[in-house]
Amino acid sequence: MEKVKKSIVLVMLILACVAAAGGYLDKTIGFFGMQRVADANDAYLQEAFDRSLTGFLVLSGIKSGLAVIEGSEVGIGFNLEIGDIVQAVYDYVDIAWKAALAGGTILLITRISLEAVTFIDHWCLALMLLVLVIFLVFEWFLASYTRLTNVFREAMLFLLVMALTLYFILPLGITAASFVSAKITQPLIQNSQDGFEKINQEFSLSHINSQLFSDDGSDDESIFSALDFTAKYEKTRERIREIGKYFKDKSKLMATLTIQLVAGYLFDCIIFPLTFFLILYLLTRSLVAFLIRSVNFDALPRTTKHETQVSNEL
């Protein structure tokens, strides 16, 4: 009678293995809420990617404007390049530009990875069920093959944790990270992007020419005033002082916005997802190991010595 019960269990597990390989168990898992989690994660990652792309394009525009300013010259009769004056601002923009590029890339990779998981998770589940069937065959009917029993037990434990990771840990880790991100880092990133948007408007060619490089001299200047090198020197020095003050003020703002943007993307794309993933993974692995130690796979009164050893190893 006990052998009949075990045989029925094995047949049910084989049918479950076939159903998992065909993707039918995925529909059941999705019905219990994981499909809503997957849809929410996809919407969050797409929105975050679009936001990072917008910021990247704004920063590209600022870089282009600064490149023009960097090659500009001031002076009347003789010229002075102002590249050194805007170098600090350009460095901050370049760092923010790289952060936006890296953040958008990581978000896109994460979204693609979650989509790729849907093509392999059911195979991992099917393989886990198959290994479980083989393990139970050795555990129940081939007790003398102790080493093979231990090997398939370890393989079943590994595949079970892997299946739980693909089905639950990864999606729930992204969901937890998106929740924390909406409360902490997204406002920080949005504030930085709004600041860069305003700066982008100020660094347009028309605004820069009107504010910093406009010629204040009258059109009816005589040839003698044009040869007045003292006045020309004073005018150039004053112009450089104005430009230096303007970009010094902007460099402070740029530094603040850049630090906010880098910190936001660092937590949003790396620290939050990785932290929640590790927490959920370690908890799941510990729980699975505890259950494997606790469950008595043999309903018959057979508790061999090797079971105790394997439990201690787990």
Topology:
Elements lengths: L1 H20 L2 H47 L2 E2 L5 E2 L1 H35 L3 H21 L4 H38 L1 H18 L2 H7 L11 H4 L2 H66 L10 H9 L1
Antiparallel strand pairs: 1-2
Helix pairs in contact: 1-4, 2-3, 2-5, 2-6, 3-9, 4-5, 5-9, 6-9
Keywords for this entry:
314 residues, mainly alpha, two-stranded antiparallel ribbon, 10 helices, 84% helix, rod-shaped
Briefly, what is this?
The chain has 314 residues and is mostly helical. 84% of the residues lie in helices and 1% in strands.
Explained architecture:
The chain is mainly alpha-helical and 314 residues long. The chain has a two-stranded antiparallel sheet. The protein is rod-shaped, with a radius of gyration of 33 Å.
Return the average pLDDT rounded to an integer.
80
| Spatial ordering of strands, largest sheet | 1-2
How helical, in percent, are the residues?
Answer: over 70%
**Principal-axis shape:** rod-shaped
What structural class do helix, strand and pairing data support?
Answer: mainly alpha
Poorly predicted sequence stretches spanning 5 or more consecutive residues: 74-80, 216-226, 299-314
Rg over C-alpha atoms, rounded to the nearest angstrom:
33 Å
Give the percentage of residues in beta strands: under 5%
Number of strands: 2
Q: How far apart are the first and last residues' alpha carbons, in Å?
A: 31 Å
Give the count of helical stretches: 10
